[in-house]
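Continuing the batch. This is chain 6 of the set; chains 1 through 5 are on the previous pages. Same settings as before, nothing changed between runs. Recording input and output for traceability.
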Amino acid sequence: MLGDVKLQFVNSDRVDVTLATQLTVDRLSVLERMLLNWPGPASVALHVRDSELAAATEHIRTSLAFRRRSNVDVHIVYRRLVSYSSSSSSSSIVVRFVIEKL
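Output for chain 6:
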């Protein structure tokens, strides 16, 4: 009892809470540890440099922390240069990975 409010805990299997986070490649190991302890769904925005894209996607595909899960979406966000005649600019690209349960 807290003041006039009675606290009641419910079974965590019935609570719809999604972990939503954003991070860079250097924090992937922290996310993997989090996923080992968080059974609920997760939505992750992973910001990478163009040069990190291949290694980041391979890491996600081979990581046990991701492969064990069917309720984790990883959205990879990176910038790539787009040339328009003599000028260049950058645009954001989002690649979505759905981790399928093996």
